[in-house]
Amino acid sequence: MTTTTLTRPELTAADRCDRCGAAAKVRAILPTGGELLFCGHHAREHENKLKELAAEIQR
């Protein structure tokens, strides 16, 4: 049996915050498989809710 792990690429300067368009510093991977990108400010603002949703946070 082969197990494949999907990895997401590192954030680059081209990745932008989904809230304000600033440079993305954090990726939140939702349990449903979707992802959100946030600048540092919006990552801190939404951190508690993302934890409630059991999102995986990548910095």
UniProtKB/TrEMBL annotation:
Residue ranges constituting the DUF7455 domain according to the UniProt record: 11-58
Give one Pfam family: DUF7455
InterPro entries, sorted = DUF7455 (IPR055878)
Protein name listed in UniProt: DUF7455 domain-containing protein
